[in-house]
Amino acid sequence: MTLYMIGIGLWDEKDISLKGLEAVKKCDKVFLESYTSKLGVPIEDLEKLYGKEIILADRDLVEKRAQEIIEPAKQGAVAFLVIGDVFGATTHTDIFLRAKEAGTKVVVINNASILNAIGIVGLELYKFGKTTSIPFHSENVETPYNVLKENQESGMHTLLLLDIHADDSKYMSIKEALEYLLKIEAKRKEGVFTKDTSCVGVARLGSLSPGIIAGKASDLLKADFGGPLHSLIVPGKLHFVEEDALKAWKA
Ligand SMILES: C[S@@+](CC[C@H](N)C(=O)[O-])C[C@H]1O[C@@H](n2cnc3c(N)ncnc32)[C@H](O)[C@@H]1O
Q1: pLDDT tens per residue across span 207-216
Q2: Helix, strand, coil percent content, the chain, rounded in steps of 5
């Protein structure tokens, strides 16, 4: 009778909220959206804490066969877990609306998302412009460069999310993201992103040992950020407090 849409946070099984955990424990079926993000622990760690078996929901299930999640929620309680927040970055508005249309009660339980965890670097969240994603197959893709350019024109910071191919455990690194932007710069020559551009690379936010380095693109190309997930930030116009904060993360 209820679809619980629950954000489970960014890193491990303990990042779920108490409210989220209580809801999961009530559920007959527990799905985990498994293709847009990645936790730092195996699924078994979640199953152990929740005391429930988890069904992995890939893109096909969520986007084409969502009724397999919504239908059982008409009879009982179903949890749809999302790493980070339910509506962070990739939104799950479609499943929310479809469940409501089907007459199912929907309860949303929020959590931290990459969209606010980046506040750790000291840039004001209010001053971020449009977020963009860099795909693995980027031969003809210039949107991230264009978004960065637009944000720069209005002095905004830019968050660049990096592609994931969960099926083959492929996660784009900060280095690959930098190389992509430099490649487009070499073609467009508009001075939007050069080896001298200030950036902040962030890895494994939400864990107790995140990798965070601020510096020029050329510095970040040489840096070792460790394992996934990675994101890249290109700061816009800096307030002096933001400038000071970034110094704390210099290589
Ligand atoms: C679709 S977004 C994640 C959406 C998720 N629902 C959320 O609210 O955070 C996935 C991308 O965000 C970035 N990301 C997610 N979690 C991260 C983390 N803990 N540390 C660094 N980057 C992360 C990566 O670039 C990754 O490819």
Answers
A1: 999 999 999 9
A2: 40, 25, 35
User: pLDDT tens for residues 125-158?
Assistant: 999 999 999 999 988 899 999 999 999 999 999 9
**Strands lying side by side in the sheet with 211-216:** 132-134, 158-162, 230-234, 198-203, 211-216
The CATH code for residues 2-112 is 3.40.1010.10
What are the two backbone dihedrals, phi and then psi, of residue 45, each rounded to the nearest 5 degrees? -65, -35
| Ligand 1 atom at minimum distance from 164 CA | 27
115-247: CATH topology: 3.30.950
Pairing of strands 170-171, 211-216: unpaired
Q: At 121, is the pLDDT very low, low, confident or very high (cuts 50, 70, 90)?
A: very high
Q: Is the Cβ–Cβ distance between 156 and 129 less than 8 Å? A: yes
Going from the Cα of 37 to the center of ligand 1, the distance in angstroms, rounded, reads 6
Of the CA atoms within 13 Å of residue 79, those in its CB half-sphere come to 28
Distance, CA 90 to ligand 1 centroid (Å)?
9
Given a contact cutoff of 8 angstroms between Cβ atoms, the answer to whether 30 and 52 are in contact is yes
Find how far residue 88's CA is from the centre of its chain.
7
Q: Is 19:109 a contact under the CB 8 Å cutoff?
A: yes
Domain boundaries, the chain: 2-112, 115-247
